[in-house]
């Protein structure tokens, strides 16, 4: 019995944020179209700047009714995500009763009427790939924390200053916390950065 419980908890840890909970919503908006110079455009509004990344659809649209600065949207998303700090981990969760890593990111973006896929590995197909040196607050950081060699964890960058990157995410051990990419575990598991806004 003890071996079974150990195996069960180990398996749960390995899949951590690979939730497949169906939220019943369709992916509606990805903001941040690459311009000719390769930088994201700066205006956001209805049917403007729809993402061109793989996995995007020309039918995707944004629900915002007026032009809003991307920086303001990113700040709102970060501020809302931080309200969940201390929330316990719950596989498939998206509320203050408990949430997983992709649930936190999904919920924070949804507050700004931006619907991302519900699973971290699917989130990693949206937006545009960003060089680590160009990382900004509001970008998404992706990780491979299991032996399956697939993206299974996501965090939201809340600070990118003086070479240190801090991100908010939900972990199986501590729930929603802010971590640093300087921590050995996250540095080794890090895969890529993507910009959705």
TrEMBL record:
Residues 1-21 form the signal peptide. Residues 57-66 have a biased composition (Basic and acidic residues). This is C40 family peptidase. InterPro entries: NLP_P60_dom, Papain-like_cys_pep_sf, Peptidase_C40. It comes from Aequorivita aurantiaca. The lineage of its organism: Bacteria, Pseudomonadati, Bacteroidota, Flavobacteriia, Flavobacteriales. The keyword Hydrolase applies. The keyword Oxidoreductase does not apply. Residues 71-197 form the NlpC/P60 domain. Keywords: Hydrolase, Protease, Signal, Thiol protease. Belongs to the peptidase C40 family. Pfam families: NLPC_P60.
């Amino acid at each position: 019995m003890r071996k079974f419980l150990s195996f069960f908890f180990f398996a749960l840890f390995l899949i951590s944020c690979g939730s497949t909970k169906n939220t019943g919503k369709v992916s509606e908006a990805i903001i941040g179209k690459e311009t000719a110079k390769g930088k994201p455009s700066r205006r956001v509004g209805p049917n403007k700047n729809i993402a061109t990344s793989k996995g995007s659809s020309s039918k995707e649209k944004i629900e915002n009714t007026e032009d809003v600065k991307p920086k303001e949207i990113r700040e709102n998303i970060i501020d809302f995500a931080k309200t969940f700090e201390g929330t316990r981990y719950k596989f498939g969760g998206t509320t203050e009763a408990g949430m997983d890593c992709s649930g936190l990111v999904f919920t924070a973006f949804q507050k700004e009427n931006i619907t991302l896929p519900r699973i971290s590995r699917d989130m990693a197909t949206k937006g545009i790939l960003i060089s680590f040196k160009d990382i900004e607050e509001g970008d998404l950081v992706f990780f491979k924390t299991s032996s399956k060699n697939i993206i299974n964890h996501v965090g939201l960058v809340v600070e990118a200053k003086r070479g240190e990157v801090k991100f908010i995410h939900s972990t199986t051990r501590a729930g929603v916390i802010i971590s640093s990419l300087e921590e050995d575990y996250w540095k080794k598991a890090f895969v890529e950065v993507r910009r959705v806004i």
